[in-house]
Amino acid sequence: MALAETFKAISDPQRREILIMLRDSRMNAGEIAEKLNISPPALSYHLRLLKKAELVMEYKEKNFIYYELNTSIFDEIIIWMKQFGGDKSEK
After folding, report:
1. What is the distance between the alpha carbons of residues 35 and 83, in angstroms, rounded to a whole number?
2. Any bridge partners for residue 27, and if so which?
3. Stretch 83-88: mean pLDDT
4. Rounded (5°) CA angle 37-42-47
5. What is the DSSP pairing of strand 56-61 with strand 64-69?
6. pLDDT band per the 50, 70, 90 thresholds, residue 28
7. Is pLDDT of 90 > 70?
8. CA 69 → CA 8, 29, 85, distances in Å?
9. Nearest 5 degrees, angle CA 82-CA 88-CA 91?
10. Average pLDDT, rounded, for the chain
């Protein structure tokens, strides 16, 4: 996991909104762009960064590409962040 790429990807409010939308179910690019009211090129840029950070996975199904969260990356982030907090006796 490249933390710098991950934090860069989640630093943008629109990318965080994409992640929140994908939390409930997978979506195709058209659905995401419509909900965010952004152009396809802008969405493509955001999705490219999210995929590069491995936060989002894509699946092709017939004529559509669907996007969904890669929850294993979020698990890794949580484990990494836990080392900075909590009870000292837990370490």
Report:
1. 36
2. 67
3. 73
4. 100
5. antiparallel
6. very high
7. no
8. 17, 14, 26
9. 60
10. 88
The predicted structure's pLDDT at residue 37:
95
**CA 87 from centroid of its chain's CA atoms:** 30
Query: pLDDT, tens digit, for every residue of 29-61?
Result: 999 999 999 999 999 999 999 999 999 999 999
**For residue 36, which of 51, 21, 58 has the smallest C-alpha distance?**
21
Look up residue 1 and give its two tokens. 């996991």
Whole-angstrom distance, CA of residue 86 vs CA of residue 48: 34
Cβ-contact 58, 67 below 8 angstroms: yes
**φ, ψ dihedrals at 54, nearest 5°:** 65, 25
**Residue 69, beta-bridge partner list:** 56
Phi (first) and psi of residue 13, to 5 degrees:
-60, -35
The proportion of the chain whose per-residue pLDDT surpasses 90, expressed as a percent, equals 62
Residues 6+ apart with CB under 8 A from 54: 1, 5, 6, 70, 73
Q: Count CB atoms within 10 A of the CB of residue 73.
A: 17
